[in-house]
Design the sequence.
C-alpha cells in the first residue's frame, strides 16, 4: 500500500495564530502561529506512524499559499473580499513557519496563482491515479468534495465520515458539495450563490437533478414558481459560484518519492536541528517532548546496529547447534544426556545454553510500530515480557488525549 499525507499548512497557520495570538518570545516577537505549526507537525509524525505499516510507502508534504490573490480573483474580484488585511503580527511569522517546516523534515509545496486547496486537490488526483491512498489534514470543509474510498480527511482530531458531510451540506455525497455551494453560496469565502436559496433547498435541488448544470438545463420544471424565478434570474451567479467553489485538480504538480518520502527514523543531526530550533524560539515544552520522544528511537537504532554487527560477525565462523531435549528428559533430569554439539561452517549461530535461562531484554518504552519492530529485532531473547506494548505505551504518552484512532 502507498499513502500520501497532505497538510493544509496555510489553514493551520491562520488557525494557530488566532488561537495563540498572545504567545510571544522574551523579545516580544509573536510566535503563536509557529508554535502551533510545530506542534501539529510533531503530532503528524505520530499519526502517520500509527496508521501506516513498516513496509508501506509513505509520502508527506506541507502545502502553502504563495499569495492571497489567485485565479479566482480574476473570475470574481470580490472573492474573499470581506477579509481584512493580514495582521503584521502574523506576517512576520511566515518565514519562521517555512523554516520550521524544513527543520522538522516536512517537504514544502506551493504553486503560484493557486491556493493551497487547489494544490492539495491536484496532488490528490495525481496520487490516486498512481495507486496511492490520500490523507488530508485540514479543518477546511471545502475538502469534503474530495472525500471518497481512497481519500480520507483528518479534521480536529477526528476522521471525517459521510455524516460529517451531511451535517455541513445536507448530502452524503462529497462530489455534490461544489454544486450545493454554487446555489447556497459561502459567506466565509464570499461566494455569492443564488440569493434566496439556502443549504437545505440547494441540497434538495442537487439531489433531485444531479448537478448544477442539469438543474439549470431543466430550470423550467422547478417548483414552486418563486424558486424557479430565482434560478432563472441568477444563472450567471450560480455558474460563477461553481467555478469558485470547485477545487482545481489540474495544477501542474509531481510526486517525487525521494524528496517527499516520510522518514520513519530520524538521525541524531535531524533531532538536534529540531531541538535547536525550539531552543531559539523558546519552545521549551516542545523541546522536552522531542527529547523524550526520540531518545527511545536513538537507543533502539543503536541496539539494532550493534545486533546487526554481531550477527554479521558470526556468519563467517563455525556454528554450534544444541541437541533437542525430549519431553522425558525435560521432566526427568536423570534421563538428560549431555548435549551433542555439531559444528557447521558458514551458518548463523543458533546456540542456546541448556543450563542458564535466556537473558531478558532491558526495560524500554516503545511508542510506535516502527520502534516496536526495531526493539523486537534488537532484543536478545524471545522472552519479551518486560517490553511495554505500543498501545499501552501510547496511552501513557504525552499525546494520549489526541484522538488518532480511525472509526
Sequence:
Amino acid at each position: 500500500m502507498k499513502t500520501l499525507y497532505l497538510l493544509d499548512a496555510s489553514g493551520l497557520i491562520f488557525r494557530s495564530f488566532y488561537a495563540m495570538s498572545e504567545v510571544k518570545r522574551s523579545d516580544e516577537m509573536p510566535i503563536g502561529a509557529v508554535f502551533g505549526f510545530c506542534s501539529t507537525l510533531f503530532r503528524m509524525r505520530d499519526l502517520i506512524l500509527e496508521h501506516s505499516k513498516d513496509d508501506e510507502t509513505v509520502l508527506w508534504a506541507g502545502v502553502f499559499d504563495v499569495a492571497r490573490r489567485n485565479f479566482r480573483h480574476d473570475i470574481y474580484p470580490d472573492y474573499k473580499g470581506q477579509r481584512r488585511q493580514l495582521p503584521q503580527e502574523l506576517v512576520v511569522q511566515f518565514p519562521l513557519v517555512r523554516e520550521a517546516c524544513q527543520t522538522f523534515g516536512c517537504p514544502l509545496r506551493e504553486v503560484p496563482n493557486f491556493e493551497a486547496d487547489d494544490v492539495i486537490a491536484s496532488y490528490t488526483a495525481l496520487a490516486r491515479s498512481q495507486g496511492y491512498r490520500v490523507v488530508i489534514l485540514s479543518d477546511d470543509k471545502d475538502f469534503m468534495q474530495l472525500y471518497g474510498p481512497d481519500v480520507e480527511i483528518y479534521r480536529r482530531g477526528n476522521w471525517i465520515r459521510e455524516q460529517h458531510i451531511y451535517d455541513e451540506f445536507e448530502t452524503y455525497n462529497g462530489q455534490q458539495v461544489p454544486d450545493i455551494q454554487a446555489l447556497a453560496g459561502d459567506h466565509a469565502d464570499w461566494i455569492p450563490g443564488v440569493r434566496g436559496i439556502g443549504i437545505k433547498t440547494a441540497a434538495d435541488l442537487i439531489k433531485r437533478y444531479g448537478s448544477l448544470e442539469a438543474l439549470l438545463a431543466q430550470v423550467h420544471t422547478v417548483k414552486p414558481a418563486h424558486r424557479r424565478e430565482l434560478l432563472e434570474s441568477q444563472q450567471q451567479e450560480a455558474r460563477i459560484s461553481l467555478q469558485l467553489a470547485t477545487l482545481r485538480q489540474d495544477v501542474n504538480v509531481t510526486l517525487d518519492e525521494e524528496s517527499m518520502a516520510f522518514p520513519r527514523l530520524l538521525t541524531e543531526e535531524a533531532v538536534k536541528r529540531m531541538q535547536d530550533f525550539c531552543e531559539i524560539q523558546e519552545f521549551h515544552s516542545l523541546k522536552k517532548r522531542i527529547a523524550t520522544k526520540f531518545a527511545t528511537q536513538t537507543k533502539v537504532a543503536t541496539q539494532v546496529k550493534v545486533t546487526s554487527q554481531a550477527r554479521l560477525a558470526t556468519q563467517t565462523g563455525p556454528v554450534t547447534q544444541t541437541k533437542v531435549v525430549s519431553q522425558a528428559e525435560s521432566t526427568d533430569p536423570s534421563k538428560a544426556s549431555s548435549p551433542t554439539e555439531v559444528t557447521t561452517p558458514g551458518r548463523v549461530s543458533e546456540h542456546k545454553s541448556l543450563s542458564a535461562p535466556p537473558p531478558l531484554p532491558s526495560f524500554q518504552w516503545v511508542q510506535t510500530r516502527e520502534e516496536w519492530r526495531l526493539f523486537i529485532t534488537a532484543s536478545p531473547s524471545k522472552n519479551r515480557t518486560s517490553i511495554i506494548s505500543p498501545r499501552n505505551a501510547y496511552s501513557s504518552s504525552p499525546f494520549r488525549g489526541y484522538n488518532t484512532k480511525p472509526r
Summary: The longest helix spans residues 284-314.
